[in-house]
Please model this.
Amino acid sequence: MDNIDINDPKILEAIQALIAKCGGAPQSFEGELVTQLIQTSLRLMMEGHDAGQLKLITRSIKEMRYAFRIFNQYKGIRRISIFGSARTPEDHPDYIAAKKFSAQIAETGWMCITGAGNGIMKAGLEGPKKESSFGLSIRLPFETSANSVIEGDPKLISFRYFFTRKLMFMSHSDAAAVFPGGVGTLDELFEILTLIQTGRSNIMPLVLVEGEGGIYWKNWDNYVRNHLLKNGWICAEDTNLYHIATDIQDAVQHVQKFYRRYHSSRYVGDLLVLRLQEPLSAQQVDQLNHQFHRLVESGRMEMSPALKEETDHLQLPRLIFRHTRRDFGLLRLLIDQINNF
Model:
């Protein structure tokens, strides 16, 4: 079967006919992507992948499709992921803080995404109203059901694989709040930091929160600065990628301030496009060019309307420049400065 050309016109015609029969437009960009997806599936069969590999790929795609379908019903609403230990007792200061934080951020119009277990996850679901919560559960041998808050809710999504679950957390979050926890919590925290630091995820507010009198994040920050930073394994600007909140109100305000003037960003070719709620003055743009020139590969930062390649938020003004694709901690400071003007 290796000599079969998956791009054979007859095969492509059959695929496109199937797409059309299912209500799609084969010649559209979306139709082309589905065509490639079907071609990839056929290649898996032609290349002789074993049943275990096929099951993993099939289940992963099914999980992602279903999760995207649920989240797509709530487009345009800001969402925050909440992480923390599943073992935190309900009378612990961290649990109480997580419940208060999730309630306050929901009051500002945000939706909360967290796991479906107990501890901080349950607290993150108890705070907001039920319609403002998503629960992303992971099937584990010692966790057989969701907590009582999210059980039975249509926004409860069950995952077999950690990597698909993590993808849904990151791809649907505009912010993240992390409470003290163990190995899983730190894994999620460092993955967020890694994705932002390397430019594989959009910059977003990352707040580290705990109950009154806690020193968990102080000790964590000391480790980061005394080992990672001091040894040169991260740069000083990377510490701008997270914020240790002094209290619940500070955490909520930090998240809200990030979107005071900044809206979102994307790359268009080699240009970084920062969408803004309102334009910057020529003097403010000059200040940014002077203060953050290290971020610019060539040329300068300029205000611009939506580029022709863009398809969303076309009414918003843009700050555009050729980004070096490095120094994302410094880019976070640029966004902070835009919000501080």
User: Anything to note?
Assistant: The first helix runs from residue 9 to 21. The mean pLDDT is 95.
